[in-house]
Design brief:
Elements (H helix, E strand, L loop, with lengths): L2 H9 L4 E4 L15 E5 L7 E4 L17 E5 L2 H8 L6 H4 L12 E2 L8 E5 L3 H22 L1
Antiparallel strand pairs: 1-2, 2-3, 3-4, 4-6, 5-6
Length: about 140
């Protein structure tokens, strides 16, 4: 998959708004060109697609066609995927290769918030995670209304 494929996967989900800020937007310059997926008018994305390293987050070695999909999977699912709860991530941080292609790993910065990430994913790896995160976000929005 390439960046545009992931964006289309996100946009295909009902009620999803994918925002890709550009020059002149209110978004910080570093976020320009990255994708943020929201559902139901939510204020926090349930998934993001980043194309470059952010300050303090260079462990995925992004850029030059390398991108990372980040997904809010929730605490229980995070523990199922990585083998420990998000609050214990600092004890395991050095165990992960955040630059490994097509591998589900804790998010290098937001693991403690139950986010996972996949660098240069295939559809078979990322689609189920995105679908689960979408269902959680859509359900959360329905409860708030």
């Amino acid at each position: 998959m390439v960046f545009d494929d992931v964006v289309e996967l996100l946009r295909a989900l009902p009620g999803v708004d994918v925002q890709i800020p550009g020059p002149g937007s209110d978004a910080p310059e570093i976020a320009q060109g990255d994708a943020f997926a929201f559902v139901g008018g939510g204020r926090m994305p349930f998934a993001t697609v980043v194309t470059k390293d952010y300050p303090g987050d260079a462990s995925s070695r992004l850029g030059a066609g390398r991108f990372r999909v980040n997904v809010d999977v929730g605490r229980a699912r995070f523990a199922e995927i990585v083998g420990y709860p998000p609050v214990e991530h600092s004890e395991h941080d050095g165990e992960w290769d955040y630059a490994a292609d097509d591998s589900v790993v804790p998010h290098p910065v937001y693991a403690n918030a139950a986010w996972v990430s996949v660098t240069c994913p295939t559809e078979g790896v990322i689609a189920p995670l995105v679908t689960e995160a979408y269902a959680r976000a859509a359900g959360r929005g329905a409860r708030v209304r």
